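Student:
Attend to each token:
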Amino acid sequence: MEVLVLAALWAGWMVFWTASQWSRKKLTPVLLIQEVLESALMGLWFGTMMTFGWRRALRMPLVTITVGSFAASLIISRAFGRRRAP
């Protein structure tokens, strides 16, 4: 349960931060589904690492969640790229 709470807090903050940065620059769309998904996966990684610590988080079976969420987040960010301000 602690993992999910930390993941939600991390992802929520990152989505809020991204949306506020883009809304200040008056760019549309303010938020993309890619950014929400990437933040959720990184939030899962952050929650797992904070709850279990790096030694326990990198042992079976948690290593599948830890490495999987981190790798999926990197793949999404590389596949869709980042939007740049004009």
